[in-house]
User: What shape does this take?
Amino acid sequence: MDRKITRNISQGMYVLTLDGAGCMVDAVSQVSYGDKPLISVAVNKDNYTNKAIKEKKKFALSVLPMDINGDIIETFGMHSSRDIDKFSKDWFDSVDGIKVIRDAIGCMILEVVDIIDTESHNLFIGRLVNALKYNDKKEMTYAYYQEHKDELIKVKTLNNKTAWICTICGYVYYGEELPDDFKCPNCGVGKELFEKKIN
Ligand SMILES: Cc1cc2nc3c(=O)[nH]c(=O)nc-3n(C[C@H](O)[C@H](O)[C@H](O)COP(=O)(O)O)c2cc1C
Assistant: This one.
């Protein structure tokens, strides 16, 4: 089985935000059309953001352009709100009371109508209740990110902590050694695809 073929599924790059939580997502898909379409987002059950969505039932998706500041991807995609405040920088506007990325192409506000339980992720189905388009920039694709992630981001891990970084999705594991049977909680690859980073 060559699971690399799954990287040929076209996906975009989004920052999912809600009150006090947020993470990078690419697993976004339109489920239905019409005035108030349904959109699905798969969020790992271990993400801090997962619990927050279940509590608040409303979140925003900011659509990232090709020229987005890589620090935004790094902050939202490679760190957890358990460890850092992701909202300390001046990157945001507020829409319907939710902080969204100002330099995005636009944003969608979604209200959760259904939650599907899968092995590692919940699939949140949201109804589009508000949407703004700021510009006509070209969206960044996940494939582009995968090809250019070394130039786009320089992972800044927490000081004085040894970190292991997933070379596939950027997940950061803190600890001196990875457990023998370790699998990336985000993308499922084994420990051989992690690189050690010492601050
Ligand atoms: C490019 C990129 C795409 C990602 N896509 C997803 C995704 O679709 N679903 C998901 O659950 N996590 C995804 N992640 C991982 C989360 O953004 C990451 O684990 C984050 O640190 C979780 O933060 P939290 O614990 O504050 O929620 C992605 C990360 C990157 C860098």
Remarks:
- The chain has two domains: 3-153, 155-199.
- DSSP finds three helices and twelve strands in the chain.
